């Protein structure tokens, strides 16, 4: 079984009905969905540094971590892997809360994401998204989607 460690950020702005969540759009061939900005931890890299680096790479924003929300563990069976790697993948996902400290929204070039943007929390259940979004929002405040 392969293990992949990654770090992600939950970044929001606004409040109440106008609260928005920063998401990155992941694409790998025909599979795609909105996800949290974040990604793989490089060998020897601290998860905090990886989270901040990945936010910048995928969105153009500089971020400051404000807390650790939790760690999620997911196992993807070999038959569900994107490239048929022939072995299951155990993903360990470290999720932080963060705030924007600078920069401007910029779409990653030549990476695993092809879009980024702010989405009203009320609209998130209608987005095509990866499960990590729901998991992380649940870590944050017990939020649960109204649709799957």
Automatic annotation (TrEMBL):
<feature type="domain" description="Nudix hydrolase">
    <location>
        <begin position="1"/>
        <end position="141"/>
    </location>
</feature>
<dbReference type="GO" id="GO:0016787">
    <property type="term" value="F:hydrolase activity"/>
</dbReference>
<dbReference type="Pfam" id="PF00293">
    <property type="entry name" value="NUDIX"/>
</dbReference>
<keyword id="KW-0378">Hydrolase</keyword>
<protein>
    <submittedName>
        <fullName>8-oxo-dGTP diphosphatase</fullName>
    </submittedName>
</protein>
<dbReference type="InterPro" id="IPR020084">
    <property type="entry name" value="NUDIX_hydrolase_CS"/>
</dbReference>
<comment type="similarity">
    <text>Belongs to the Nudix hydrolase family.</text>
</comment>
<dbReference type="InterPro" id="IPR015797">
    <property type="entry name" value="NUDIX_hydrolase-like_dom_sf"/>
</dbReference>
<dbReference type="InterPro" id="IPR000086">
    <property type="entry name" value="NUDIX_hydrolase_dom"/>
</dbReference>
<dbReference type="InterPro" id="IPR020476">
    <property type="entry name" value="Nudix_hydrolase"/>
</dbReference>
